[in-house]
Amino acid sequence: GEDVEQSLFLSVREGDSSVINCTYTDSSSTYLYWYKQEPGAGLQLLTYIFSNMDMKQDQRLTVLLNKKDKHLSLRIADTQTGDSAIYFCADHSGGYQKVTFGTGTKLQVIP
Amino acid sequence: DVKVTQSSRYLVKRTGEKVFLECVQDMDHENMFWYRQDPGLGLRLIYFSYDVKMKEKGDIPEGYSVSREKKERFSLILESASTNQTSMYLCAISSHGDSRNQGGYTFGSGTRLTVV
Q1: CB contact under 8 A, B108 and A42
Q2: Inter-chain contact A48–B101, Cβ cutoff 8 Å?
Q3: A96: nearest CA partner in chain B
Q4: Conformation bin of residue A19: beta by default, left when phi > 0, alpha when psi is -120 to 50
Q5: Does B25 have pLDDT greater than 90?
Q6: First-to-last CA distance in chain B?
Q7: DSSP state of B53
Q8: What is the nearest CA distance from A80 to chain B, expressed in angstroms?
Q9: Residue A97: CB partners within 8 Å, gap ≥ 6?
């Protein structure tokens, strides 16, 4: 089946940029998503990118998609302590409206 | 904003008990999903539903069943709870026609279930 992989942990200093990476296997993906999960909460949709796009920018967030290598990244500029959370990459695949999630990357922001 | 409400934030049940987890949405979204979240494993799909009385197995349906008698409510049932079902359970919804989110999900806050 489809697979979405992420590294489990990332630590950055406040004010630096964070880059969270994700790889996926499904070549028929239409949309790819980034979700944020704060402690004790559900997931919140941060942003998405259509598979025919290379880049999408939304304020401090930049999403880069390399469809050839099946690689997705999320860059957070000027990382703040409030950005500390688990970030999930997700791939719209496997049938209508079904989404496959990665294992999540825990971002720790050091003041 | 769309709201997805899960009936309990924390639940403790005994092994062998029948457990009901409820999820209610306040929008007319067709698709509803149940996931469990475990450290290092991410989110795994248990069951989903595209419409009332319709259900489809996800990746890990064993030991679970679901019910969708009304469009707004999707229930997850643990027929006989076991300790390996201790987990965080997340309900999510999406809509075919949601152009704002392009098929992205809206999640509930989760239910942390402990089976002792």
Answers
A1: yes
A2: yes
A3: B96
A4: beta
A5: yes
A6: 37
A7: T
A8: 23
A9: B31, B50, B94, B96, B103
* CA angle (B39 as vertex; B35, B43 as ends), nearest 5: 25
Separation in Å, CA of B8 to nearest CA in chain A? 13
Could you report the per-residue pLDDT of A31-84, keeping only the tens digit for each? 899 999 998 889 999 999 988 899 999 999 999 999 999 999 999 999 999 999
| Cβ–Cβ under 8 Å, residues A71 and A86 | no
Distance, in Å, from the CA atom of B110 to the CA atom of A95, rounded to the nearest integer, reads 25
DSSP for A69-94, written as a single string:
TTEEEEEESS--GGG-EEEEEEEE-S
* Contact between B110 and A102 using a beta-carbon 8 Å cutoff: no
Q: And the tokens for A17?
A: 């940029």
- Which residues sit opposite A56 in a β-bridge? A63
Exposure string for A15-45, b = 16+ CB within 10 A, e = fewer? eeebebbbbbebeebebbbbbbbeeeebbeb
A95, burial (CB in 10 Å: exposed 0-12, middle 13-18, buried 19+): exposed
Q: Do A31 and B102 touch (CB under 8 A)?
A: yes
Chain B residues in contact with A89 by the CB 8 A cut-off are none
Q: Which residue of A has its CA nearest to B94?
A: A97
Mean pLDDT of chain B: 91
